[in-house]
Amino acid sequence: MDEMNEIEFELIMHSGNARSYAMEAIREADKGNFKKANELLSESKKELLNAQRSHSGIIQDEAAGKKIEITLLLMHSEDHLASSTVVVDLAKEIIKIHQKYNKEED
């Protein structure tokens, strides 16, 4: 496997982990487990950061003049990163909403 494939698979793995943690955080917030939800959201953000670091390497290589071949795998990994970023952002907001309505019920 070449270096680019490794980066693509890292993007997919870390993005997928970020999305999974974020979805689990939403489920915990729905149960009222806000401490656990925030811990999972923190893990999600760490995974997203790892994915973004891998992504930055691709951008830096292209900016330095390295020819980047656009493959289906690269497009797939970019899609994973984009969708995971949205899920993590939405999870943060959904958790806030759950916390707000949980306080109002008390």
UniProtKB/TrEMBL annotation:
Residues bearing the modification Phosphohistidine = 76
Q: Gene3D superfamilies annotated for this entry?
A: Phosphotransferase system, lactose/cellobiose-type IIA subunit
Q: Which UniProt keywords apply?
A: Phosphotransferase system, Sugar transport, Transferase, Transport
Protein name (database record): PTS lactose/cellobiose transporter subunit IIA
Q: Which organism is it from?
A: Clostridium brassicae
